[in-house]
């Protein structure tokens, strides 16, 4: 694949992601939290440089009742900004459908990742292709809510 096509692919992903985030917000998670076999959440992190809230829509799977998200970034060799933000500040907000939560993020252990990876592949087999594009092993982040 040529360099130009890679840039085009990442731009398209960015455009679709922005549109999904916009719809998730204005529809309060309704109609856009579930597409096909995939469930999506809106994750809010604190920017490590700006200290401002940053939102991203991510596919998630359930792990012992908690949402888990994968930092694939479409196979980009760089880690996504949301992951860098989480590594800097584990406090997050997330919205699953219309339900808003305040919580904590943590990187899954090796054992947890091995258990979760097939669940992500089952929902979206493209993750295997993404993983083959880079030597970076995609971290999986587990979200827990602080609500009682």
What features would you highlight for this structure?
single chain, Pnp Oxidase, Chain A, alpha+beta, six-stranded antiparallel beta barrel
Written account of the structure:
It is a single chain. By secondary structure, this protein is of the alpha+beta class. It has one domain: Electron Transport, Fmn-binding Protein, Chain A (Pnp Oxidase, Chain A, Roll). The chain has four helices and seven strands, in the order H-E-E-E-E-H-E-E-H-H-E. It has helices spanning 3-26, 81-88, 110-123, 126-132, and strands at residues 34-35, 38-46, 53-63, 66-70, 91-96, 99-107, 140-145. It has a six-stranded antiparallel beta barrel. The longest helix has 24 residues, at 3-26. The chain is globular and about 40 Å long. The model has no long low-confidence stretch (mean pLDDT 90).
Helix-strand layout with pairing:
Layout: H1 3-26, E1 34-35, E2 38-46, E3 53-63, E4 66-70, H2 81-88, E5 91-96, E6 99-107, H3 110-123, H4 126-132, E7 140-145
Antiparallel strand pairs: 1-2, 2-3, 2-5, 3-4, 4-7, 5-6, 6-7
